[in-house]
Amino acid sequence: MPKCICIVDDHLNIREMLRYALTLQGLEVVEAVDGADALEKIVTHNIDMVLVDWLMPKVDGLEMLRCLRAMEAFAEIPVVMISGHDDIDARNSARELGVLYWLKKPFRISELQLVVENSLCAADSSSTLNR
After folding, report:
1. Per-residue model confidence as pLDDT tens for the chain (131 residues)
2. How many C-beta atoms surround the C-beta of residue 98 within 10 A?
3. Cα dist from 58 to 9, 54, 55, 81, 105, whole Å
4. Whole-structure pTM value
5. Which residues constitute the domain of residue 17?
6. What angle do CA 38, 43, 49 make, to 5 degrees?
7. How far are the Cα atoms of 8, 26, 74 from residue 65, in angstroms, in the given order?
8. What is the pLDDT of residue 34?
9. Structural domain tally of the chain?
10. What pLDDT score does 126 carry?
11. What is the 3-state secondary structure (H, E, C) of the chain?
12. In what order do the strands lie in the sheet with 79-83?
């Protein structure tokens, strides 16, 4: 069964590009337009990983991540933050909340695919160790 990734970005063109890149890897994709939408989809879908934009209207990536980490059933889902900004305070906050990577836009599709593959492998290794 393919892994399922939740893409969270308020820009349709970014979501489409991410969907294209991830489906090339054989992954399933669920899209969300902001953090609140993502949290709903994480609860209702079998999500293996989240790719989330930092800056979005309503609920941004960091707030979504805080909420996700507070939900015991979903607290261990691997998260990769994507952003066109490189704010050191936001990066530190994301790291404290367990973000595996901060992927700065623009990025190459091959870079995204490698980050996703490594994140999924790290999550699989971690769940194997915790058994």
Report:
1. 889 999 999 999 999 999 999 999 999 999 999 999 999 999 999 999 999 999 998 899 999 999 999 999 999 999 999 998 888 999 999 999 999 999 998 999 999 999 999 999 887 776 544 43
2. 14
3. 12, 12, 10, 17, 21
4. 0.91
5. 4-129
6. 60
7. 11, 25, 10
8. 95
9. 1
10. 66
11. CCCEEEEECCCHHHHHHHHHHHHHCCCEEEEECCHHHHHHHHHHCCCCEEEEECCCCCCCHHHHHHHHHHCHHHCCCCEEEEECCCCHHHHHHHHHCCCCEEEECCCCHHHHHHHHHHHHHHHHHHHHHCC
12. 28-32, 4-8, 49-53, 79-83, 101-104
In angstroms, the CA 71 to CA 74 distance is: 6
- CATH code of the domain covering residue 87: 3.40.50.2300
- 29 in Cβ contact with 38 (< 8 Å): no
